[in-house]
Amino acid sequence: MADFSSERLSVLNAEYVRCIDNDAVEQWPDFFVERCLYVVNTADNYAQGMQAGVIYADSRAMLHDRVSALRDANIYEQHRYRHIVGTPLVLERSEEGAQAETPFLVVRIMRDGQTDVFASGRYVDRIVDEAGTLKFAERIAVCDSHNIDTLLAIPL
């Protein structure tokens, strides 16, 4: 069975948020398997089984499209994120992968220096080992707030 220890999952999460926080979002889709699921949703909708979310992508190609739109099409006020992620809790391990949950806090920094807590919540993940590399088969960002800021351009 592959190693789905909390330590390995912590490294995966650290590399994931470093990619986003350092504005290397072109690398972001590489954290996912080809047929993946990435969703940003509210806790209420998630609890009620409403899976569509504010952002919904069901393939790595859709994640690449999101990056292309972010870089070439979307017009939004420039800003950056800084993620703080907790220790992942491995809920289940199997031959197919692992289920894990990781708390997160995202701070948004605007060009003028204004800094606000942008999002808090938890990642609900299904992680697989693809040729010795851990990847997300599913990453659902379940945000604590009932409302999600309309300036959600950069992935969480």
Structural notes for this entry:
The chain has 156 residues and is of the alpha+beta class. Helices cover 22% and strands 44% of the residues. It is built from three helices and seven strands; from the N terminus they run H-E-H-E-H-E-E-E-E-E. The chain has helices spanning 6-21, 43-47, 60-72; strands at 32-42, 55-57, 79-85, 89-94, 97-110, 115-130, 133-143. Strands 1, 2, 3, 4, 5, 6 and 7 form a seven-stranded mixed β-sheet that branches. The two termini are 30 Å apart.
Number of β-strand runs: 7
Query: Radius of gyration over alpha carbons?
Result: 15 Å
Q: Biggest sheet, open or closed, and with what strands and sense?
A: 7 strands, mixed
- The fraction of residues in strands falls at 35-45%
Which regions contain 5 or more consecutive residues with pLDDT less than 50?
Answer: none
* Helix fraction by DSSP (H/I, runs of at least 4): 10-25%
What pattern of helices and strands is seen along the backbone? Answer: HEHEHEEEEE
Q: Compute the number of helices.
A: 3
Ends: how far apart? 30 Å
